[in-house]
Design a protein that fits this description.
Blueprint lengths: L18 H8 L2 H16 L9 H20 L3 H5 L2 E8 L6 E2 L1 H14 L2 E13 L5 E12 L7 E13 L2 E11 L7
């Protein structure tokens, strides 16, 4: 019952099964689907970038906000403008939207020349920084103190400013402020 050496019979021939056919034949489809989903999820779960220190970014926004308030209090045009990106937008009370650094510069020049205030005080309420670390906003109150017999002693306002970090530098992209109470028309 032996075979001659060198000759194979059909019961001795082993044909390997293609891996795909093996998987389809011996592994159930739900398990295969689960395994595929796990592979997709694991390869997609890679770190997006460096971890952002949100508290440090909040502190930086706080410091920059104070520098901005100091520049405005001193009627420092260059210092005030240095806080804005060239494409920034201002939304002042009872006025049109001010777009771009040139228009913002003109608004500040007019404000510094025409509004007889003696100081500006900023009182931020909150600062929020996105988890990405490149967008933030802060809001709160500010007050303008005036000198002179016909001026109100203090005008209080509220504000919200949005900040964007570009190439490692934070600057304002939009700022809106309004009066806490209606102002009388002159």
């Amino acid at each position: 019952m032996g075979t001659k050496k060198g000759k194979l019979t059909s019961d001795q021939i082993v044909i390997p099964i293609h891996p795909f056919l093996f998987i389809m034949k011996y592994i159930h489809l739900p398990y295969l689907a689960s395994l595929s989903l796990m592979c997709i999820l694991l390869t997609g779960c890679q770190e997006a970038g460096p971890i952002v220190d949100i508290e440090a970014e909040k502190q930086l926004i706080s410091e920059l906000s104070q520098q901005w308030a100091d520049a405005e209090s001193q009627k420092d045009l260059e210092g005030s403008l240095s806080m804005f990106w060239d494409d920034a937008v201002l939304l002042p009370p009872d006025a049109d939207v001010v777009e771009g650094i040139d228009a913002i510069s003109q608004l500040y020049q007019d404000f510094f020349e025409q509004v007889p205030y003696s100081s500006l005080t900023l009182a931020p309420t909150a600062i929020t920084v996105a988890a990405s670390g490149d967008v933030a906003y802060n809001w709160g109150n500010l007050s303008l103190e005036f000198d002179g017999p016909d001026a109100p002693p203090v005008v209080t306002m509220k504000f919200i400013a949005t900040w964007e970090k570009r190439s490692g530098t934070w600057k304002v992209t939009a700022n809106m402020y309004s009066y806490n109470s209606p102002q009388s028309a002159e």
